[in-house]
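Problem statement: downstream parser choked on a complex file, so we are re-checking the raw output for the iron/sulfur cluster run. The parser issue turned out to be on our end (a line-ending mismatch), but while we're here, posting the original submission so the record is complete.
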Amino acid sequence: MAVAKPAQAPRVGFVSLGCPKALVDSERILTQLRSEGYAISPSYDGADLVVVNTCGFIDAAVEESLDAIGEALAENGKVIVTGCLGAKGSVVQDAHPQVLAVTGPHATEEVMRAVHAHLPKPHDPFSDLVPAAGIRLTPRHYAYLKISEGCNHRCSFCIIPAMRGDLVSRPVGEVMREAEALVASGVKELLVISQDTSAYGVDVKYRTGFWEGRPLRTRMKELCAALGSLRTPEGEQVWVRLHYVYPYPHVDEVIELMAEGGVLPYIDVPFQHASPRILKLMKRPASGESNLERIRAWRRICPELTIRSTFIAGFPGETAEEFQQLLDFIEESELDRVGCFAYSPVEGAAANALPDPLPQAEREARQARFMQLQSRISARRLKARVGSVQRVLIDAIEGNGAIARSAADAPEIDGVVRFSGVTKAGLGVGDWATVRITSATSHDLRGKLLRADEMQ
Ligand code: SF4
């Protein structure tokens, strides 16, 4: 019996220049290449493609790197450039426009993506069974996109930094490629999550990464704009919803992006309290007063903005006046969606040692009063939407009716928009529809499905 000869592994040549940091980058790329089944070629002519890791520190190093790229192009012809010279604007492309791709340093993922595009990786019977977008537990049409892990704050009621450490932002190119893979697999709504979304990139000093061969900063505004540029295979703009955003000044730029339609006009900001003294005890960064001003400024920039927030009632030492301050804040700020928890001590949290803890019954009573007030505010806000036309995404079908969400509703935590007539319209789960809102409760909306000719 003839035994099939195993196919020869694709071969990659590698030129590594520069300092020990560049050397480590080279080692990472080579390790990844080998673990994916590529062979490493010791010569140009035995390679199917060459990766050149460059240095851009001084003029002599730039010269040496450009020469090495030129040599690889002359000897082999298929060249991917990575390393410090790649981060220096268009120096590489200007000198050698034939290179296949250019990335900055510390960019294993981007280099591997370029390698995959020009030299497909060998078939692996195990890993090739995993879908490109990974295994997901959410419905096909929406997905969570985690952009960082950990947190640099030390809120006294929270033990997340002790468990997960300081903020570590994922490389922006990696986040974008995951988002693209999700969209290609049918996702229409990306829910951006982290412990502190507005701090994205602080830990890497907003380093410039690469996406689709273009530089892209590891920063909230730039990431949001790039995510907002994604289109479904049918050419529709993907919904991008932002969670866990802290009200740092640069968030104003993201609100402008919302007003321009770049991302959904929806922001989930955990304010937690309104009293400056309690916020200080909580070790939260902002004061209640400036938050109110910020909310007003945001609404001026983007009047359709939906604001969701969470609060804690009955924090240790919270006086009746301070609790009233919290109620006044939610009355004045008219937040759309609000959750409130009665303070509950978490093992290991610094707040446990604070004086004057409130009895459990009092904490719960304050939470109930808070939610009663918020329910009236929420009903008022929803009633104001009656008569408006909303684009909605269908989460579930029950008989002839749909349970959907508008831009103002995040899955699982906010309300829904219900409407009927899906059978005749041929609509299913994961489809978009346009409805006119006809009535509201304190939490949900009901609407009438519009035909194309009724949408003008
Ligand atoms: S509550 Fe949020 S911001 Fe504060 S320490 Fe915990 S994770 Fe960080």
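For whoever reads this later: The chain is about 30% helix and 20% strand.
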